Amino acid sequence: MEQSVSNFALSTNGQSVTFDIIVQKRAIGCAITRDALERHFWLERGAVVSHLTKAFGNGQQRIAAVAERKALAKGATQVLITADDFDYR
User: Which CATH number, 3.30.160.140, 3.40.50.720, 2.60.40.10, 2.70.50.60, labels domain 6-86?
Assistant: First the structure.
């Protein structure tokens, strides 16, 4: 299922991008770490903010799908996505 992402923004410490998705009619607050973007979405280490948001935008569908799966699996109202979430075993 394709997810719609809203309200995406850089966190205050610059170490993650925050965003919201709707899962089963519930708003889920999400964040993806800068490390995950660097390791899995071709963000250069130490990149400027504009590159961080571009990397997020380019991977938005895949990121939202992982957020949705985590929210459903855990019944969570908040989800933190790390690089480990993209390491398939």
Answer: 3.30.160.140
